[in-house]
Amino acid sequence: MKHSSQPSALSPGTHSITVPHGLARVEQRYHVAGSGPVCVAHSGGPGIGWEYLRMAGLEDHLTMVYVEPVGTGRSGRLPDPREYTVATYAGLLHHLVEHLELPHVTLLGHSHGGFVAQRYALDHPGRLAALVLYDTSPVADGEFWSAAVAGMERFVARHAAGHPEVTDYVAALTTRLDLMTDTGATAVLRQIMPAYVFDYWGREAEFGPARRSLRMYAEPNRGQGAPFDVRADLPAITAPALVLAGQQDFICGPRWARLLAESLPAADLTLLDGTGHLAHVERPARFTTEVLSFLRAHGVLEGGA
Fold first, then answer.
1. Which of 35, 70, 118, 176 gets the highest tally of CB atoms within 10 A of its CB?
2. CA dist list (Å): 14 to 8, 20, 64, 66
3. Helices and strands in the chain, H and E counts
4. How many whole angstroms separate alpha carbon 245 and alpha carbon 247?
5. Helix (H, G, I), strand (E, B) or coil at 275
6. Does the predicted model carry a pTM greater than 0.70?
7. Pairing of strands 105-110, 267-272
């Protein structure tokens, strides 16, 4: 494995390593910020630029390692786009954990990144110190996506009178991103971003800049394979897990969070009211408190809960 030119694999800033994928090798970038015990964070999508996941509150207590997923940003691209699967991302994540020389890792996965975190936990159970499954689900099958469309339809019904542009949101949610360019996929993501937070228009001064900075890369949406579903396997994940979701998250909300928590042997469930899919942006202080309290309770951080 080719090591970063940085003096340390965990020094603050941007790092790049080369990791194997089958017979190929691919560039994997990651970003380090903060100090304290290490927490590796995997962003969602697939295909959303990692930057939206910056968690300043956690960086005050933890060394946050943000994965820049392969297929996005300045990380490398897979030779065959059909191989952008959860299993592929879990494998790439393991190479990064090995590079960081972490005998045990605290892993935070958001949305699709939560799929990757679950797959990693199943593939490498002995490497987990703790798991934070944030606005995610143990399954992404037809029923999951039907529920997401229904959730978007309810959002549209609530807001169409005051914001008629939302009438296009259901069509945008179901758009084939795999057939688009990065520019087109980014436009779709920015278009429907208000549905992912609670009270977007009441807090547009806060959320508008975040909306305009989102980036989506189309290629990771070209992955092929069976729909994600680890429901039957979850009891094998015995590491302490925090399942955290927004009460008003239309896509990975309470239904899926409860399913996760009920299936994991050592899970704590936290639902944040007045919160959508982006609690670390919508309610950063509460989000930070919940994560840090969990990590203290399980000995990852010093101090009482």
1. 118
2. 11, 20, 12, 9
3. 10, 8
4. 6
5. coil
6. yes
7. unpaired
Q: Distance (Å, rounded) from C-alpha 135 to C-alpha 149?
A: 17
Long-range contacts at 54-59 (CB < 8 A, ≥ 24 apart)? 55/280, 55/284, 55/287, 55/288, 56/284, 57/280, 57/284, 57/285, 57/287, 57/288, 58/34, 58/288, 58/291, 58/292, 59/33, 59/34, 59/35
pLDDT digits (tens, 9 = 90+) for 171-215: 999 999 999 999 999 999 999 999 999 999 999 999 999 999 999
Under 8 Å between Cβ of 228 and 140: yes
Give tens-digit pLDDT for 139-169.
999 999 999 999 999 999 999 999 999 999 9
One-letter amino acid for residue 76 of the chain: G
**HSE (side-chain half, CA atoms, 13 Å) at 169:** 26
Q: Which residues pair with 92 in a beta bridge?
A: none
Residues pairing with 231 in the sheet: none
Alpha helices (runs of H) in 101-141, residue ranges in sequence order:
112-123
Cα three-residue angle 119-120-122, rounded to 5 degrees: 65
Place of tokens 């798991």: 131
CA distance 305 to 298: 9
| CA angle in degrees (0–180, nearest 5) for 289-148-119 | 60
Contact 1, 18 (CB under 8 A): yes
